Amino acid sequence: MDLKGYLKERCVLVDNALEKLLPGENDLPSSIHRAMRYSVFAGGKRVRPVLMLAACEAVGGVLEDALPAACAMEMIHTYSLIHDDLPAMDDDDFRRGRPTNHKVFGEAIAILAGDALLTEAFIALGAPEYVARVGAERLVPATREIAFCAGSRGMVGGQVVDMESEGKSDIDLATVQYIHTHKTGALIKASVKSGAILGGADDAALAAMTKFGETIGLAFQIADDILDIEGTTEQIGKDAGSDQARGKATYPAVMGLAESKRRARELVEIALDALSAFGEEAEPLREIARYIVARES
Amino acid sequence: MDLKGYLKERCVLVDNALEKLLPGENDLPSSIHRAMRYSVFAGGKRVRPVLMLAACEAVGGVLEDALPAACAMEMIHTYSLIHDDLPAMDDDDFRRGRPTNHKVFGEAIAILAGDALLTEAFIALGAPEYVARVGAERLVPATREIAFCAGSRGMVGGQVVDMESEGKSDIDLATVQYIHTHKTGALIKASVKSGAILGGADDAALAAMTKFGETIGLAFQIADDILDIEGTTEQIGKDAGSDQARGKATYPAVMGLAESKRRARELVEIALDALSAFGEEAEPLREIARYIVARES
Question: I need a labelling partner for A223 at 20 to 30 A (CA). Which of A76, A137, B144, B269 fits?
Answer without folding.
Answer: A76
